[in-house]
Give the backbone structure.
Amino acid sequence: MTILFYLAGAIALISTLSVVTSKNVVHALVYLIVSLLAVAVIFFVLGAPFAAMLEAIVYAGAIMVLFLFVMMMLNLGQATEDEEGAWLSPRVWVGPSLLVLVLFGQLASVLIRQEYSIVPVDVGVRDLSLELFGPYLLAVELASMLLLAGLVAAYHLAKK
Amino acid sequence: MIDWIGLLPAFPLAGFLALVLTGGRLPKKVAGIIGVGSIGLSFLLAVVISLEFLGSGAESVSRTLWVWMSVGTFNPGFSFYLDGLTVVMILIISGVGFLIHLYSTGFMADDPGFARFFSYMNLFVASMLVLVLADNLVLLYLGWEGVGLCSYLLIGFWYENPANGYAARKAFVVTRVGDTSMAIGLFLLFSQLGTLNIQDILSLASQQWVIGSGLAIAAAALLLGGAVGKSAQLPLQTWLPDAMAGPTPISALIHAATMVTAGVYLIARTHILFELAPSVQLLVAWIGLATLLMAGFTALTQRDIKRILAYSTISQIGYMFLALGVGAWSAAVFHLMTHAFFKALLFLAAGTVILSLHHEHDIFRMGGMRRKLPLAFWSFMIGSAALTALPFTSGFYSKDEILLAALAQPEYGMVLWTGGVIGAFLTALYSFRLVFVVFMGKGHHGAESDIHEHSDIHRESDSHGVTDAHAHDPVREITGFAMATPLIILAVLSLVGGLIHVPVDSVFAELAGVEEVHASNFIHGVMIAVPIFGVALSYVFYGNPRYEKASQHMRNNLRTSALGGVLHRFWFRGWGMDALYDALLVRPFVTLATINKKDIVDQFYGLFVMITRIGNSALVMLQTGNLRWYGISLVGGLAIVIAIGVWI
Amino acid sequence: MQAIPYEHGLILAAMLFVCGLAGVLTRRNIVFVLMSLEIMLNACGLAFVVASARWGHADGQIMFLMILTLAAAEVAVGLGLIIQMYRRFHTVDISVLNEMKG
């Protein structure tokens, strides 16, 4: 299982890097789906099967499909891809990359101090639901309101 | 009916609101009915209330409408207090006010600001009634400021002309000096006595303060400051002559008959305070004497018909102050009443003359109006006779009382009396000079007959556009029911008003003894003879048609002689008071203002502004509008914060 | 079942997060920016699930659910905005939208 974790992690990382550096939107989306599925695998390994399912269904499924639909609507052609190439000169990458690496260095130096090994225990749907509809009931309600707001806003914004 | 006392000021106030809220859209007829009718109702109510009050024999009645404000122990009510003095005042205000309103419907008939005029007038009457009815000094101050405001609005009524606006401002600012003094007096009284109810103050003051104590002197002096400002006495008299910029009925109502007597009323109302401070009371007498003489001399040289009357008003109020100063409270109130009659009459008659002559103000451009304006002539004759205090006119009785009371003053009685008699002589001289020049003679209207070195005569320039083009139009007396009736009623009152007994004995009861003066026949003779002599002298100089050439020659000689010329110029300019104040107060103030125009002190604070501006322009450069730049800033900041949090 | 070092999971999340951040900072195409934001949100979710596994408790997963909801709402609104932007400016370049500069 540990190997599976590292493998999925590597896949996720590589595909994510590809998303960020890709020139073609659709390719990038496919890479992103791969990355999300890899993360789903990691969830599964970490003993969160319900989260893994949701990651696959909602993220990789629903959200990415939404992206795809929008891409189709926009119908960005070859011109955009060429433009993208012009924008992504190596020089552009230097500054943000350095900054981001500094941030990562900081995060890593903090995280590396943790000395603990996870022995995954399944936290299943049952446990989750009991928590969700018990102490977190208000959060569920708020989340539903947020989704409603998102729905209304999206309808309003995308209207002609 | 006394319970309805609150309606007295409420009627005019309602009239004011009705006229103001309709914004001049009412037809003139309706506006006139509202404007005059509200005062008329007020007058009828005042008569009924007065009769009931006098009939009841009560000393005073007071009614609280509601508590105005309640702050700790300070809770002045909106309450009215009625006694003999108040009865006199409300009858004068509403009665004379009603007549003047009626007159105004004729006088202002062609004015575009007809409704505005009546709304201000109504507000004025309402404020004045509040002033005299108030049972505490706060409410009195409300009325006091209210009439000040109306005075400002009405002086500047023809606001298109900047000069009128200036005159209004001057009146407002000068009276403000007095009002400030009065406000401080109120604070003093409240801090010392803990109340502002007038009757409580008077009883507490006489219990707690001994005669001549410092507090009593301070309180009386501060109140006197307010009275001096409102009543145009020395040294705050300069605003009244300029106040003649307003329409003539205004001058009659506000600047002759009612508002300017508010100071007299205030002193009479708080007379116990002044009795506690004899030095201040004496000061009142001296102020009155100085003012009446100064104004008398000034009136001798004026050419503007309204300015002459204005100075005579100042002079007559000087008499009232003299009376107050010698403790003849009821004589002062009596003179206040008779003065209201004859001065309103004179102003209204002057208004008729002015209107008939197309807004001509210079008396030397009039002349021979006797036949052309008979009503105005007879009004003027009666008014001037009363003003001069010729025997059996109303002014005679009141001035007689004042002079006798002055003579009875123990220390300076003789001086005060002599001054008063000289003033009476001057009064006769200038008032009949006015009458003779305007109404007698051959009628040199439109032709300059009197060589005069001063061409800077003040002329009323108003929205009608006064020009000399009108000067040759035929003179036609403008009368009519609305304008003639008040003149006739006021003329009758001026003649017989002296027989009215002012019901103020109960108010000033403890002083009744002081006014019992037994003067010798000589004194009486002098007081009767002096005004007659003045009239005679005036006739010699101005009125005698047979010796017109000779008298004119005489006048020119007098004027061109060195001393005569200097005095004439000096008096004409009102004893140089305006120039003095200009040099002493206005100029230095304006200079300071000019120096400080660049805000020297503010420069220091400008530094902060500058620093803020520089900081702003620096930070503006960071606002690129570029999303990635913002993101980078955010991440950079995050990195720094984490660094601080983790390693420090 | 072999143990997975706790910090490795967190560092993986940090790596993903940092990748997404680099994308947000670098890309000019707004679609990529939105995708990068998704990556960052997902990385956060991963960190929560790792923590959940660390403590053997469901709270972390509930947080992940919340993030999921948030991401869904955000994508809906964000895509709506992209459509509007493309309609108005006929471009997906965010550096065109710099009218808010001071």
Summary: Chain A has a mean pLDDT of 87. Residues 57 and 67 of chain A are 14 Å apart (CA to CA). Chain A has seven helices and one strand. The two ends of chain A are 51 Å apart (CA to CA).
